[in-house]
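tokens incoming
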């Protein structure tokens, strides 16, 4: 029989009793580090690199980063599930080729040709999703194969040729600024819309919670009611659809549709996603960190180009940042354990003091 005494009052429990304080969760995160690096890079570049903060430089920074920003949205969700899609750049190239052929050779309007090309991108994503989610093949093997397949189809359709002659009204729209004399290209509007949609889907919906559960443990996610196969298939279809949009955008900005478009873009997208704090092992990541990671790479590239650095030096710097970002979880773990241990020691000391006071009383 237990006896309740006034010496052991019930203590109210709160979320902070079961987790680290809010400031620790914010500061001791990879996303915070990336955002801090982005701010530092902007401040340093504005003070040290001539013409960096000019409207023309910032315009090209946003315009050149737009394709990576768009593709990074679905790629973030895919990598959080523990999968990967290496075929996005090839899908961009294939949709660019088909868009050019449908408009220039087929005589279709730009709008109709764009819709059909985006639909083709969704089909490419569905092929990846079916093979990964329902057949059960490894995503890295599937998308390496489709990376070669999709670009090969584009090269087979056009060969070394290209398609040009798109209406000036459409190419000018793709390069237009939101406000004249301001450094913000029009492509940022659809990006912001898609970013809000993906943020709501990933971070504020049951579907998004299922994405994180799959990344942590797909078998456990199945037992909690998550349709793992359907979730993965949807994410690959979304990746293909966004790649189709990027294919249209790339074609209109450059004015050329060819099979070599966006060569190597998939590596830049994956590097930006990992740099933004998404775990390559799945189960962890946030879109705001990924967006900061894309912009950080863009700022570094633009600043170093204006400073006269070669592409090889720029790639070395970006590669070092990527390696450090992947290592950051292991680097932060000892700090977190030290903070937790010191907090536990203080808590034990307070408990011992309280017990001593009660015994004396």
């Amino acid at each position: 029989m237990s006896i309740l005494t006034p010496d052991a009052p019930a203590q109210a429990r709160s979320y902070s009793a079961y987790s680290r304080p809010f400031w620790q969760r914010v500061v001791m995160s990879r996303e915070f580090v990336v955002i801090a690096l982005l701010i530092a890079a902007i401040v340093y570049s504005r003070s040290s690199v001539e013409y960096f903060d000019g409207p023309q430089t910032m315009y090209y920074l946003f315009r050149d980063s737009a394709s990576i920003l768009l593709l990074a949205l679905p790629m973030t969700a895919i990598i959080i599930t523990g999968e990967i899609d290496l075929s996005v750049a090839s899908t961009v190239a294939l949709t660019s080729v088909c868009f050019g052929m449908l408009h220039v050779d087929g005589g279709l309007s730009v709008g109709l040709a764009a819709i059909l090309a985006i639909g083709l991108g969704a089909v490419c994503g569905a092929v990846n999703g079916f093979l990964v989610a329902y057949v059960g093949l490894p995503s890295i093997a599937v998308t390496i194969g489709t990376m070669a397949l999709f670009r090969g189809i584009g090269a087979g359709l056009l060969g070394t040729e290209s398609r040009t002659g798109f209406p000036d009204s459409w190419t000018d729209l793709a390069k237009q600024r939101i406000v004249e004399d301001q450094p913000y290209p029009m492509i940022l509007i659809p990006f912001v819309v898609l970013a809000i949609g993906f943020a709501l889907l990933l971070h504020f919906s049951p579907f998004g919670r299922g994405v994180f559960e799959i990344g942590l443990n797909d078998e456990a996610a199945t037992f909690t009611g998550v349709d793992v196969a359907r979730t993965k298939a949807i994410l690959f279809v979304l990746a293909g659809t966004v790649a189709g949009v990027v294919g249209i955008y790339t074609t209109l900005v450059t004015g050329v549709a060819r099979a070599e478009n966006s060569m190597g873009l998939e590596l830049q997208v994956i590097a930006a996603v990992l740099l933004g704090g998404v775990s390559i092992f799945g189960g962890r990541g946030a879109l705001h960190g990924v967006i900061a990671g894309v912009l950080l790479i863009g700022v570094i590239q633009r600043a170093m180009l204006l400073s006269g650095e070669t592409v090889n030096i720029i790639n070395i710097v970006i590669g070092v940042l990527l390696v450090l970002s992947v290592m950051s979880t292991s680097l932060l773990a000892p700090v977190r354990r030290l903070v937790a241990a010191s907090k536990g020691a203080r808590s034990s000391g307070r408990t011992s003091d309280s017990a001593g006071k009660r015994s004396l009383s």
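note: The CA atoms of residues 52 and 326 lie 29 Å apart.
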